[in-house]
Amino acid sequence: MAWLKRIAIFLLILLLLVVGGLAVLGAMPAAEDPLVDPRTGGAGASSVDPSWSGLERTFPPLVQPDDTPTSAEAVELGRQLFFDPILSGANDISCASCHQPDLGFADGKIHPVGVDGAELPRHTPGLWNVGWATSLFWDGRAATLEDQAATPLTHPAEMAGEPDGTVAELAAIPAYGELFTAAFPGQSEAVNFDNLRRALAAFQRTLVSDNSAFDRFATGDVNALTASQKRGLDLFRSAATRCFECHTAPLFANNTFRAIGVPEAEGVNDPGRPGVQADAPVGSFRVPSLRNVALSAPYMHNGSLATLEDVVQFYADGGGRNFGNEAVDSFVRGFDLSEQEKADLVAFLHALTDESQMPEIPASVPSGLPVIQRVENPARTAVEQSNAPAAVAEPGPPRTLRVAPGESIQAAVDQARPGDTVEIEYGVYNQHVVVDISDFTLRGIPNPAGEWPVLDGENNFADGVVSSGNNFTIEQLAVKNYKANGILVEGVRNVVIRDVYVEKTGVYGIYPVHSTGVLIERVEATGVNDAGIYVGQSEDIVVRDSVAYGSVIGIEIENSVNAEVYNNHTYGNSAGIFFDLLPNLTSKVSVGGKVYNNRVEENNLANFAEAGMAAALIPPGTGVVLLATDEVEVYDNIITGNDSAGVAIFRLTVGYDPSVIDVADLPERNWIHDNQLANNGNNPAPFLAELGVPGADILWDASAWSNRFDQPGASVFPPLLPSSGWPEWVAKGYWQVLNFAMERLF
Q: pTM, whole model, 2 decimals?
């Protein structure tokens, strides 16, 4: 019996070593993304509520350091300095020399001209609404206007000033001494270089454009946009052009950097953002605001496109792809527009013009040096010709407007006021519809057999229905054969999409984006080359009692907060249900979800997403996919017959180069439990086979220790998954070992 005792002692020692090892490993730092407030990550609507339309958006806080005054005195000092050539080394160039107010605070040149006629390499950007920019210069090297000011003032090829010399010149002028003292009271030596930069920044933050024809339309002046501009607005926010993805209202920018492939002159190789951030995409530059864009030609970081028409054509041709450059942003894909549609899009860009808060150019400055003169800008004439006078919508009690076959749905919508309902009698309507008012219902009237009216685009239109109205309901309609989307709802608070059938509508069937309070119920979606039912960059979402089949993705929740997906049936897609966090979007979060009581069956359709789209990365045969998302609970679902995996959890680097990832990419604190899992993973996709990963009921890439799996009897990879019963130190210790092995095996 002594040998049994020795074996027992040996096993006890081995167990203690294992436990001790896990304890040590469990105490070591484990990879975790920093915790952030999901409600500040950019998801959801920014529209004003209540408002006439969902197009009316709240401006974010200005980017302003605490030590820069906002007083009228500081602004006036900044205005005088902005127009005074005394800030340059030779007293011959002012800030306004390159930022001419009449030219959209740009200069109208391809490249600006600095000291001694030297041509500078990058085009002068406009300054309207620059106070909201979180990074300055085309490459984003400065975080604030105060930081930005130092570069042109002192650069030897721009203004060639020397801080001490400039301050000495200013201090020698009594009028400037008085202006500095008034702007910065209580300072013994108010005339200094830091205060100079603060004053310039204070002035530039007053360059606000927020009362354009578009703004008046958004707040209820229904005739503020012409018919052409309304069509252009529809195109601007369509998935056909995807302009709104980067140029998001109300700023019509999004403080990101994008590689669009603008051709450079021969011998020029401008890296753009990588010159500041090494891992940024090559050739990426800051997305400029489109406010007053009509006034600031030419365009792009190098001034290479002369007109807005040239810009539209550049994007229509696929950006840099037209020049053999495939390494461009995923949103730049090209599109097919008629000449009228291109003109409509340009007309809408004209509607973003507002110079009502134009500062006055001083007749003289304290230095006595010459001040720039006003110039004629022919673009103003084009804007005036594009824009129409505003008229306020007449209020009235709620009404119900009826549309019969052969009549225009859009004509009825255009007559509607907030609170109205447009009812569509049974029939087939070869139209598309744009809704820009709040508190509105679009409803089909079924025939005696219960069939809904049909919007059939016959592949002649990008979208079936587009809405930016708060409190929008659409119900009892079939939407078929559109090139981009079935129903697109953008920037809305409280949208209800119910009792709708969508078929072959391009990228998405149901497509609420940038919205808060989304309810999708009793929807049937099929034949879509991305997601049949999609909700993106939104918050407080419910998708229930719906059926999605025959698409690349059945139901997708992307970069969103707080979503419930339940009582749905997804089958015959490439992937059934997909929660994901993707890079380079306005929303930087994907957190909080419940997926329960769904049937997710045989999602083995060959992936037919367009190459380059995120959906193309999904291996066919996946039931539920969690990609870089956090805190999603998947339970009480029936998940069967999916060839690659029943449930798959991966970090973002499975499909994206780390250099383009600008979000926290680990899938964390997800919980998979109490699902019925059967016959999954029997024929895994080549993508998984190439990685050496077998199919299984559950696949996990071991990328974050905090995920939990309570699925006894399920086939899993890796062979052992942490459960909710594991102590934290055990889970962390096991993850350290597993992650070490996975990184070396795969």
A: 0.78
